[in-house]
Specification:
With 252 residues, the protein is mainly α. It has helices at 2-24, 32-35, 37-47, 55-86, 94-109, 112-123, 127-151, 155-163, 168-202, 210-219, 223-251. It is built from eleven helices and no strands. The longest helix has 35 residues, at 168-202.
Amino acid sequence: MAAWSLDLLLWGGFGIILIAAFNTVDLPNIVNLFSNSENMRNYGRDFLNPDFSDWQPLVGQMWLTVQIALWGTFLAVFLAVPLSLMASRNLSPAWLVWPVRRVMDLLRSVPDLVIGTLFIVAVGLGPLAGVLAIGLNTAGVLAKLFSEAVESIDKGPIEGVKATGAGRLHEIAWGVLPQVAPLWTSFALYRFESNSRAATVLGLIGAGGIGQVLFESLQAFDYRTVSTIAIIIVVAVTLIDMLSQAMRKRLL
């Protein structure tokens, strides 16, 4: 009865929140999606007729976006590894775990668009701001995932290394890292895929890449170019997904 009551409370509360939010999220106005059918037809006509006459610069901008995501993910992993080890309750003392976890919360809670805007003010327009924004935001996410992986490891290998008289760094190198390396690799590859899309959005605020061209095309109502950019992004993300799958099979 207690378990049933808890389930009823959880799912009932979820349903109540959905109903209460119906008007808040403006769902009654969904009929406007069909009332402006003429505008939708015009947009759809141009969108289904992409213009590939100038595709090479667009591919170059997409490649820049991928490079931003790659460097941002690399910096994030570089930061996340020590943060995750310091935030793991089975490796670090409580007085260190708590402040490090709050730093991780701060890094991943601030939207990358906000961080990107701050870096644009600091370093100017361009891809560097995008790299730094993605690096900090992703570091908070990966540090949390990495620390959870460390906290779920088997203590046996660590105790075995400790029994040989090895130091703390040796315990981590030989007892911790071999156990978490597959999960860490999977998490990092997944975030690289996500960052390839995030880097596109960062282009909207002037952080470079194809997102900037996309924003300019939208402002100019050049929907044929928007369609071309969308196709290029889909193809790029698909290729990155295929590459990451191949790397997972190879490394894991």
